[in-house]
């Protein structure tokens, strides 16, 4: 590379029609050792972020040109850019260039003054290198093969000192959330324990906020060293909260430099139910097993009912398609508990078309809040047998769907489950369903 500097300088001098530098007067070198070093010598940076180092020089006399090489672990770092420092520019116009080998993890950086001028003396910054941190780890920032030339093209003796980088995560996480008790009356206190952990390499100060559904319960500031964890408690006063089910969520604020934020929030293991201080039953869920059913086949509707009152209750629940009763079931529910009921609908005799489904919990004695006793949610399409996609015809699209889900069943370890592809409603997609598509292929409505 010494020859490169000599040739480059000679070319630039000719190109700029400058005079031969034989008239320059050589100044004796200082007795102090010239040092070129990485500054800061130790770097701590976060993954997913940029950081910069300077290559500095001290105690130099008559510096006209310089060159250095820098190496690093290419699996950890990428170079973003390199810029010339201010030191050599104080002597006049300069030429600066660099070349990066990202695969090998090294670069060469070169700079020289232009013209028949003396070099620069003193201390300063030669260049600045900016890196991007790709992953956690540590590695040397090895400064080597440094060349310094004075204005007579003579080498300047030097000592080169590299640096070292530690590349860590900023990462805080909520690891566990519990609430107790989980069934209360308005005004009772629910204790919420939140365990948080600093999974990164830096000490962190951050906030933890707890929510009941979307309403803030409380916020606390937390300070955690690297790798440490703690559990904090929130006392939730439920006085201003109405009857219902509440999802408790704890969220840690994102710390500067944090990239992995998916673990900053966590939902409590159980929902919290606030009861009504009286008699109160409700329908809280209506869900069809299938949304598309061939005419003449049977399907199922799941209805979830809950007792929000403080008394055990015995009552009836009825499921409907549009205004037609499917089935009525009696049940007994203890205070604060829920149950999922299954209703069977054989659609023989029903016209092809779309049907809305709903459920109704019959009011219990002395119940005053009956608005939530009825829930309309979801629909079922009665169509041509073999129609899987709900376009009222059996064609190639339906054949492709039954082949796609062939061999699947609920909770299959690898294959996705599409209940609409289970034409005969036996909880599996098999040869029987394929035969039904083929048998009714080409049929349509109207």
Describe the fold and architecture.
7% of the residues lie in helices and 50% in strands. It has helices spanning 2-15, 396-404, 431-439; strands at 35-39, 42-46, 50-71, 77-84, 94-101, 106-113, 120-133, 137-150, 159-161, 163-168, 172-180, 183-184, 189-198, 204-212, 215-224, 229-237, 244-246, 248-252, 265-267, 272-274, 281-288, 292-294, 298-307, 313-321, 324-333, 338-346, 353-361, 374-383. The longest helix has 14 residues, at 2-15. It has three domains: 2-21 and 31-168, Immunoglobulin-like; 172-274, Immunoglobulins (Immunoglobulin-like, Sandwich); 281-439, Immunoglobulins (Immunoglobulin-like). With 446 residues, the chain is mostly beta strands.
At a glance:
The chain has 446 residues and is mostly beta strands. It has helices at 2-15, 396-404, 431-439; strands spanning 35-39, 42-46, 50-71, 77-84, 94-101, 106-113, 120-133, 137-150, 159-161, 163-168, 172-180, 183-184, 189-198, 204-212, 215-224, 229-237, 244-246, 248-252, 265-267, 272-274, 281-288, 292-294, 298-307, 313-321, 324-333, 338-346, 353-361, 374-383. It is built from three helices and 28 strands.
Topology:
Layout: H1 2-15, E1 35-39, E2 42-46, E3 50-71, E4 77-84, E5 94-101, E6 106-113, E7 120-133, E8 137-150, E9 159-161, E10 163-168, E11 172-180, E12 183-184, E13 189-198, E14 204-212, E15 215-224, E16 229-237, E17 244-246, E18 248-252, E19 265-267, E20 272-274, E21 281-288, E22 292-294, E23 298-307, E24 313-321, E25 324-333, E26 338-346, E27 353-361, E28 374-383, H2 396-404, H3 431-439
Parallel strand pairs: 1-9, 2-10, 12-20, 22-28
Antiparallel strand pairs: 1-3, 3-6, 3-7, 3-8, 4-7, 5-6, 8-10, 11-13, 13-16, 14-15, 14-18, 17-20, 18-19, 21-23, 23-26, 24-25, 24-27, 27-28
Helix pairs in contact: 2-3
């Amino acid at each position: 590379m010494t020859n490169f500097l000599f040739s480059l300088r000679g070319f630039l001098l000719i190109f700029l029609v400058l005079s031969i530098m034989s008239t320059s007067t050589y100044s004796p070198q200082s007795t102090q050792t010239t040092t070129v070093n990485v500054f800061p010598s130790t770097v701590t940076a976060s993954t997913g972020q940029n950081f910069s180092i300077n290559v500095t020089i001290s105690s130099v006399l008559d510096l006209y040109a310089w060159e250095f090489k820098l190496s690093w672990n290419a699996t950890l770092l990428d170079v973003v850019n390199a810029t010339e420092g201010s030191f050599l520019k104080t002597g006049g116009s300069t030429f600066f260039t660099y070349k990066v080998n990202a695969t090998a993890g090294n670069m060469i950086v070169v700079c020289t003054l232009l013209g028949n001028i003396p070099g620069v003396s003193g201390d300063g910054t030669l260049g600045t290198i900016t890196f991007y941190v790709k992953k956690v780890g540590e590695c040397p920032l090895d400064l080597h093969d440094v060349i310094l030339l004075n204005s007579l093209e003579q080498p300047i003796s030097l000592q080169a000192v590299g640096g070292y980088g530690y590349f860590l995560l900023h990462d805080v996480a909520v690891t566990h959330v519990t609430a107790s008790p989980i069934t209360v009356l308005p005004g009772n206190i629910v204790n919420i324990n939140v365990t948080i952990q600093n999974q990164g390499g830096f000490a962190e100060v951050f906030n933890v906020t707890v929510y009941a559904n979307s309403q803030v319960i409380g916020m606390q500031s937390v300070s955690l060293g690297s790798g440490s964890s703690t559990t904090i408690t929130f006392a939730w006063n439920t006085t201003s909260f109405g009857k219902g089910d509440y999802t408790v969520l704890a969220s840690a604020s994102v710390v500067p430099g944090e990239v992995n934020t998916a673990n900053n929030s966590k939902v409590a293991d159980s929902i919290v139910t606030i009861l009504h201080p009286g008699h109160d039953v409700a329908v809280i869920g209506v869900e069809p097993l299938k949304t598309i059913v061939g005419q003449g086949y049977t399907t199922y509707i799941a209805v979830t009912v809950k007792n929000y009152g403080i008394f055990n209750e015995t009552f009836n629940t009825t499921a409907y398609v549009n205004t037609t009763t499917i089935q009525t079931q009696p049940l007994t529910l203890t205070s604060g508990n829920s149950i999922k009921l299954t209703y069977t609908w054989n659609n023989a005799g029903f016209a092809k078309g779309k049907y809305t489904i709903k459920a109704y919990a019959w009011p219990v004695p002395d119940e005053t809040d009956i608005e939530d006793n009825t829930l309309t949610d979801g629909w079922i399409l009665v169509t041509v047998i073999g129609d899987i996609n709900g376009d009222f015809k059996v064609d190639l699209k339906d054949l492709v769907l039954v082949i796609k889900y062939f061999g699947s069943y609920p909770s299959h370890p690898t294959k996705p489950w599409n209940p609409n592809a289970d034409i005969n409603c036996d909880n599996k997609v098999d040869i029987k369903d394929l035969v039904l598509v083929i048998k009714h292929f080409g049929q349509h409505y109207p």
